[in-house]
Amino acid sequence: xxxxxxxxxxxxxxxxxxxxxxxxxxxxxxxxxxxxxxxxxxxxxxxxxxxxxxxxxxxxxxxxxxxxxxxxxxxxxxxxxxxxxxxxxxxxxxxxxxxxxxxxxxxxxxxxxxxxxxxxxxxxxxxxxxxxxxxxxxxxxxxxxxxxxxxxxxxxxxxxxxxxxxxxxxxxxxxxxxxxxxxxxxxxxxxxxxxxxxxxxxxxxxxxxxxxxxxxxxxxxxxxxxxxxxxxxxxxxxxxxxxxxxxxxxxxxxxxxxxxxxxxxxxxxxxxxxxxxxxxxxxxxxxxxxxxxxxxxxxxxxxxxxxxxxxx
Length: 312
Ligand SMILES: [Zn+2]
Prior knowledge:
The chain is of the alpha/beta class. It has one domain (about 25-245): Metallo-beta-lactamase, Chain A (4-Layer Sandwich). The chain is about 40% helix and about 20% strand. The chain has a seven-stranded mixed beta sheet. Helix 5 (about 130-140) links the parallel strand 6 and strand 7 (about 160). Helix 6 packs antiparallel against helix 7 and helix 7 (about 250-270) packs across helix 9. Zinc ion binds next to strand 12.
């Protein structure tokens, strides 16, 4: 049937309006970039969680081995996990065999549901379990800004928990070492070290370019214990949890030295009986002022560290 011209025009206008409305403002485009032979990273946004960045404001790692691919962190949602999987397929024809959650913050594990559904094994350190269980609701609430982009996401615990502080996974001769020192940013924080490639996926033990985050579950003391392992390993390449691919000196300056400064200042304040607001005000954040979000976050970090030193 041939529609009269006006009807056609109306249909076209309606279609155009609908397609414009349906057009997303912006969405995450996951693409892995090589950092060493067979090793890749996706470098995420260093802003907070937004509809546009889909909560993937963190880095994701990929290791291609002769017996399959290994992903470091599953992303912030079911839909993001699907995009990560597509990005993996663009890099390698090897099937994805294993997903390691390097910590228990949302963007490290809330994509697990997708990979579990695909029959891909998921793994984390055992110290992540309680926090994943306790905070999954809170983490989902924090991602409400994703609106319909959070659809399909169900917090899914990893299939396997590793108890040892040091363990090695051999993937067809490619060694993947997991190193856990009671966490830091989150209780399950685990370093993923590739000794043959001289590459470290630090997870949230290293933040560069932006200021690190402290939550009530964070512990600066064990965070520094985890960092001490990095000092010993002296990785040539560090893929941090947040920020650009970096080296040891930058990781030390942007993360370790900030933790050391916070703890030294707050230990003195607590020992001398200085009250929290005066201690927070007196913290010298100038050496870290160039880091993104420093103005907003440094007082919060100072506050959190004071409370931790008081408990210690
Ligand atoms: Zn993080």
